[in-house]
């Protein structure tokens, strides 16, 4: 698709978030004036980019999929990356989204024009204006590589797990893996066999529980296909179970010892070396950091050709890496499994509001928004997967569909009332976020005794949603026009 000169709604990003909103808009109106710009060569977002060995979803796919686009083709209860990517491409084709996407088009800047009541947007493929701008770039879209001293001097190969170098052969190599998070637990077991030796550098151990994954039999998939309501029932059951799990993990501290006992048993069964078990045992409450799901991560670390270095990494040399004890490890390849930048989204540096400051400057390292979706001082801007919408127990797709309903209702309200500019009340936004932070104070994420990416540099938990997801959906079921100032070019109304 060619980039237009003007569009009513411009969505930045064509992953689960951007596609979910576009699909909701098109269900209302097939002729909706909406365009998605995508910096990549295809739709799919994180499921297009993350192609590392073993990449898979850690939420059951019965729930980690659009409610409006069920699929009876999943091979496992926890889907692998290639089939999630294929699923998204099919949804894009079936809904007509594919005809609304401009690929290889990266946002460079978006500036609010107060006089004209529109966004002036610059992209890598040209400029355009948009009445409404939606940032749907995701919280886990930009890889983070720490600036270790000497990294630029390393003579070997380096890459991040989110930008896996498939042309590089790891057979017979000495590999350093930096990080022990969700991606590392998936790809380390996959590379242990071809590599000569893998050294995993850990700063903080994580609680690991078994992954209750199974292959979906043909008979079950046939029932899903012929009697679709059965799949809806399973989705509802999975959702209910996950809500109970979330409540237990975040609030019901008396339940946490049971989870910890299960994790300790899993560790004891898979790791025979007592010293290694000690290194892999966290000293914080389970659930404080993201629990990891794996049936082979711990077992892999117990292999003789895999080492765990628990002093972390401090620097890089020409031929290796130096751990926290000052010992140099000779390696051929360094793979960073160091995560992303959820509390410092790069897109925030590109969006400038009505007061002349970027969203990043406005947040000053501590993101917050009204209902995770709107920010005062940034009219006609909506965020998908914004601050305090992340989950530790359920599917982000459920949250994204809730936001899509809210944003779509807001857009319809603007059209119906002929509103040129909507801006959420700063007082309302502050009050909302005080409530969110108050609820978070009682959760394991805030008081579990760990250091996690949920906590921003200001010490606020600007990432997690504190309670049941159905409460979020209820909050966003309808657009609350009364909490926004609405402006028309020719007049101003309260």
UniProtKB/TrEMBL annotation:
The keyword Membrane does not apply. InterPro entries: FAD-bind_Monooxygenase_sf, FAD/NAD-bd_sf. Its EC number is 1.14.13.-. It is an enzyme of class 1 (oxidoreductase). Keywords: Monooxygenase, Oxidoreductase. It comes from the Bacteria. One of its GO terms (molecular function) is monooxygenase activity. This is Flavin-containing monooxygenase. It comes from Rhodococcus baikonurensis.
